[in-house]
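Limitations

Structures in this collection are predictions, not experimental determinations, and the ligand pose is part of the prediction. Treat each record accordingly. The example that follows, with glutamine as the small molecule, is included so readers can see exactly what is and is not provided: the inputs are given verbatim, and the output is the predicted complex.
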Amino acid sequence: MNSIFSNLPTTVFEVMSGLARDLNAINLGQGFPDDPGPDDVRQKAADAVLNGYNQYPSMMGIPELREAIAAHYRRFHGVDLDPAREVMVTSGATEAIAGALFATIEPGDEVVLMQPTYDAYVPLVLRAGGIPRFVTLRPPHWHFSEADLERVFTSKTKAVVFNNPLNPCGVVYPREQIERLARFCIRHDVIAICDEVWEHLIFDGREHVSMIALPGMRQRTIKIGSAGKIFSLTGWKVGLVAAAPELMKVLSKSHQFLTFTTPPNLQVAVAHGLGKDTDYFSGMRQSFQRSRDRLSTGLAQLGFSVLPSQGTYFVTIDISAMGLDDETFCRNLVTKFGVAAIPVSAFYTVDSVKSVVRFCFAKYDATLDAALQRLEKAASHPDLLKAPS
Ligand code: GLN
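Predicted complex:
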């Protein structure tokens, strides 16, 4: 069997969710909301199954959804996209990332990745024959410097995968950082694969800067979004891809042999959702921001060192002062105290940061409060948290 996949452990999300189920723990690990998602969007999907078209939709996505995506990004990011030539629907953002890597890389090409990387990136780059070149991001701000980029961009660099807002750290990159990366992409003639699935999950009035909207980037950016994240429907796996026609022509070729299409009922429902009033999007943001505050404040009151969460569903704590690593912390937390979390070291390939733990706050207040009660017990038993397995 292929060595990249046979040597790969099961994804940390599946492992932690499995442990949470087996141990009846509160699952603040894998990122999915308690909230079932907007009624009208789910109703549309149900109606479309019963009364709509259930055969293969067109490969690039139903025209109604492609138009809705173009209109949505015009409204929120000021990007003009031609729905017929510059928009594609995939079965989740992960398919879009895989497809983008397969469509851009020749074996031996270098791909710049920022650690912590979302866990799909490295195996997909390797399977595409690419050579990952890592920028290592560190707490508390997780920013990259000019020198960081100088070290990894070479004449062999074909693409960079850039996740903004950044999972697992909850960072929303400011414009200067994105402009810095764009300068390197232009200087080295590199394609930017922009994983922007958290684009609507940003707090405290921050702006989401899309790389595709920066001067010089329009022709070299593949922008990837996720309806699942926008509508709290993570199981739907509807990915939104935007790219200039020359790129899209090739992207569509890799998509046609990965999944080819995406369930038509979900596409109808997402098209409806993307057209919702701006109030929906700001209300959704406010509600997640409130949950972020509830969990962050609770964790800080228990004495944990909370790193600021500017976006995503996640808040992190820095446990370096506690004298244990993140994996030990998470293992003991779930087995002894019944709360699942994610060790951020799982997202590093080299020079791991082992002192940061991620919690998902996209939960009902009661879930967060119950988790905090258990975390209070954990905080008062550091000996149990530190015990080796
Ligand atoms: N994006 C989700 C997270 O970060 C996980 C998705 C998955 O389990 N593949 O928690």
